[in-house]
Amino acid sequence: MLNHIRSIAIIALAAGLMWNCGGERLTQSEVGTEEQVGRPLSKLAVAHHKAQAVVMVNLYRDGAPVSGATVEFSRSIAGQTPAYEWSGTTDEKGQTLVEIASGNGYYQARASQDGIEIGTWSSIPINAGYKVILYLPIGGKAQVKESYSLEEPTKQITARDVIDKKTLKAFVEAAKEYAKSFPFSEDIAEEFRQEGGRWKHEAIYLAVLNSDGVIVYHAANAALEGQNLINYEDPNGVKYVQELIAAAAAGGGFVEYYFDNPAVDENGDGDLLGDPIGSPKISYATPITDPQTGMKLTFLSGFYPQVKE
User: Fold this and answer.
1) Pairwise CA distance, residues 264 & 115, whole Å
2) Is 131 in contact with 173 (CB distance < 8 Å)?
3) Which residue, 17, 75, 135, 244, has fewest beta-carbon neighbours within 10 Å?
4) Which residues contact residue 298 at a Cβ distance below 8 angstroms, ignoring those fewer than 6 apart?
5) DSSP code for 44
6) N-terminal to C-terminal alpha carbon distance within the chain
7) In the chain, which ranges are continuous DSSP H helix?
8) Contact 125/106 with Cβ under 8 angstroms?
C-alpha cells in the first residue's frame, strides 16, 4: 500500500514539473508546428510580396541611356518634405531595379550624377504588388510604359491562345488590364494592331465601341473607325452590336452571332469579304472607361469556334 502511494506521488510530482517547465505546452507546440509549419511563413511571404513594388527605371537624356546615375524615390505626401528612401544606380543601359516597400500612391523621383542633381519627376503612380516599367527622360515627364502584377503567372495569354470562351474572356480582360482605360496611349494602340504580336493574330483582334454603336478603335482595320454600326444585324436578325454594348454594360458577357470570316470563301468566288451568310462567331464584351468623360465604352474581341489551327 505504501509503495502504491509513493508511486502516485512520484507520478504527480513528475507531471507538475513537466507542466511548470512547459513540457505539455512544448508537446502541443510541436504538434501544431508539424501540422501548420509553412502556412504562417507562406502568408508572410505573400503579404511582403503584395506590400512592395518593383520599379524598372530607364533613365535617358536625348534618347541616350544615362549610366552611373543614382535614382531615388520618395512617397508624395502633401505638406511633408520628400524622404528619398529607395534608390538604385543605373547600368550602361541606363537601367536600375528599385524595390519600394510602401503602399499604393503617387511618388516622386530624382536622379543625380557625381553628386549633382540632373533630373526630377513627380506624380508617378506606383502600386504595391506590381512591377512598373518606368521611363525617366531628363528634362521631360515620367512615363509608365507598363505595369503588371507580380502575382501573374509567367505565361501570358495571347491572341493565338484564344480557342474557346474561357480563353477569349481571359484574353480580353488581360488586354483591358494592360490598357487600363481608353483612349489608349499611342504605344498601346499601335501594339494592339501588330499582327502576330500578343494582341492580334489573324481573325483575333480588339475593338472598342461607344454607347451609340460607333467604332472608336479597330485593331484590324482603322478605316472602320468612326462608322456607326448600331443597327447592324446578322442573317438571323441578331443585332449583335446592340447586344455587345448591353453585355458590356452588364459587366461583361458573351454574344453569339454570324459574321464574315476572312478564312472562309462561302461564295467560292475568291472574295473572302462580303459573304452574305457569314460564320458562327462568339465575342466577349467588357466595359472600359474613358477617364476624361467618365463614359463607359465597350471593349471586345471574338473568335470563330469552328476554325482551328
Assistant:
1) 65
2) no
3) 17
4) 208, 209, 210, 211, 244, 245, 247, 248, 249, 285, 286, 287, 288
5) H
6) 90
7) 2-20, 23-36, 39-51, 165-179, 186-193, 240-249
8) yes
Residues forming a β-bridge with 155:
none
Dihedral sign for Cα atoms in the order 165, 173, 298, 273: negative
CA distance readout (Å), 294 to 48, 90, 111, 189, 299? 34, 39, 36, 20, 15
Q: Across the strands, what pairs with 231?
A: none
Per-position DSSP letters for 221-254, written without gaps between them: -GGGTT-B-TT---TT---HHHHHHHHHHTT-EE
Query: pLDDT by residue (tens digit) across 246-265?
Result: 999 999 999 999 998 877 75
> Among residues of the chain, what percentage have pLDDT more than 70?
77
Closest C-alpha among 213, 232, 222 to residue 285:
213
CA 191 from centroid of its chain's CA atoms: 16
d(CA 83, CA 216): 43
How crowded is residue 249: how many other Cβ atoms within 10 Å of its Cβ?
A: 14
243 phi/psi in degrees, rounded to 5: -70, -35
Please write the tens of the pLDDT for every residue from 96-145. Answer: 999 998 778 999 999 999 999 999 999 999 998 888 999 999 999 999 98
Looking at 83-186, which runs of residues are DSSP E strands? Answer: 86-89, 95-101, 105-113, 116-126, 130-137, 143-149
Task: Output DSSP code: residue 160.
Answer: G
Q: Which domains does the chain have, with CATH numbers?
A: 52-149 (2.60.40.1120), 159-303 (3.30.450.20)
* Cis peptide bond N-terminal to 287, omega within 30: no
Cβ atoms of residues 69 and 55 within 8 Å: no
